[in-house]
Amino acid sequence: MTMLPARPTPKKLGLVIDLDTCVGCHACVVSCKEWNTSGYGVPLSDQDPYGADPSGAWLNRIHTFEVVPEGGELIGQEGEARVVHFPKSCLHCEDAPCVTVCPTGASYKRAEDGIVLVDEDKCIGCGLCAWSCAYGAREVDIAAGVMKKCTLCVDRIYNEKLEEIDRVPSCVRTCPAGARHFGDLGDPNSAVSKLVADRGGFDLMPEQNNKPVNKYLPPREKRALGEGARTTAVEEDTSGASGLLGWFDRALSGTPQEGKAQ
């Protein structure tokens, strides 16, 4: 069996995901797939991608839920239910059971930065790590015959040939909503640690005692409209419109056109 680092890693690289900001666009999913399929991190294969029964390995997925508060209505008063998009990949746990259950030492946690990786040369594809993962974050690559998982794009974040702005996981770099953040969660003064502290970031399934490094930021509470807030559309005054816009306005409103007999 594989051993975890003897001491907690001082550096804990991971993701902070803002559930209030994520719009479920799947840009992070596609970017992750493309980077790993065409790059050197953990190449992903597909089987019959354009056929009737396609399959393949994905390291990042988004689950979408309709959340209904206790006593709320699924379809009813405005503001009762809301949709939450929940991205999920490997959480790089401090106490990672996927590591300790591995019989060949293929799964391991790096002492220098806390990233959990798979040595594909040692992996026999037994699936024990996937069964032990409470988050369903590992997938078997059928073509390669080995288990694969998020690497935090370790081939990007340390690549000095890239511009500094690009030395983050592909999913973080591509997120159009700014819902994904990357940094050292072992440093209380880092931007991601401050973000977790300010927004009440939480662990996924803390009852499992896996101590995931990745954190989630909860959706913000909806605020009611204040008094005097505009709740209805204001009718536009187009009486002075001229040119083509004026012609359309008069034609659609039934106002007689200039120069026409009344």
Give keywords.
single chain; 262 residues; Alpha-Beta Plaits; two-stranded antiparallel ribbon; 7 helices; 19% helix
What is the β-strand count? 11
Provide the succession of SSEs: EHEEEEHEEHEEHHEHEH
- Tally of alpha and pi helices: 7
Radius of gyration computed on alpha carbons? 25 Å
**Helix residue percentage:** 10-25%
- For the record, the CATH class is Alpha Beta
Strand order of the largest sheet: 10-1-11
Morphology call: elongated
Short description, anyone?
This protein has one domain: Alpha-Beta Plaits (2-Layer Sandwich), CATH 3.30.70.20.
Characterise this structure:
The strands form five sheets. A three-stranded mixed β-sheet has the order 10-1-11. It is an alpha+beta fold and 262 residues long. It has a single domain, classed as Alpha-Beta Plaits, CATH 3.30.70. It contains seven helices and eleven strands. It has helices at residues 27-38, 97-100, 128-132, 154-157, 170-174, 191-199, 243-253; strands at residues 13-18, 46-47, 55-56, 61-67, 82-88, 107-109, 116-118, 139-141, 146-148, 180-184, 215-217. The mean pLDDT is 87. A hairpin with a 6-residue loop joins strand 6 (107-109) and strand 7 (116-118).
